[in-house]
Write the structure tokens for this entry.
Amino acid sequence: MNDHNPNYSLLVDLIADAIRCARIAKEVVFNVVVPQLPPQRRGIAKGIQKRLEGDQYISEIFVRELTSLMDLLRREIATGSDQCWMSDEHDVNGGHHVTHLDDRAFALSNAAAHLADLRNAIHDALDFAKAGRLADELVDC
């Protein structure tokens, strides 16, 4: 795709959204994730942080690394969460599960949501670019 293609501006918008998410994720990784993880589990978070400081994050490889970090965060969040059953005061047979997070798990949970936003934004940009390349190939046939 080139700048004469009408889809070019949409791709630029998708990349701009990924850059916005990356800016937020960079702060979250630096201020929340790295300090909350034990020193022996900080390696992948520091690698993500380093990639976010440059312009090397709109790639499938980075998405896989980000997914690995999010999996690590899910396990860390699970260690700080507790589920219980909350009965319904109006129905003796009713109720629902409630999840309580400690402060660390709550902070990591919010961080994981920001990282998911970044992953989704990068996916959107990569998928749109791939679709454009495939469409160009089909038109050229």
Q: What stands out?
A: The mean pLDDT is 91. The chain has one domain: 8-140. The CA atoms of residues 39 and 45 lie 11 Å apart.
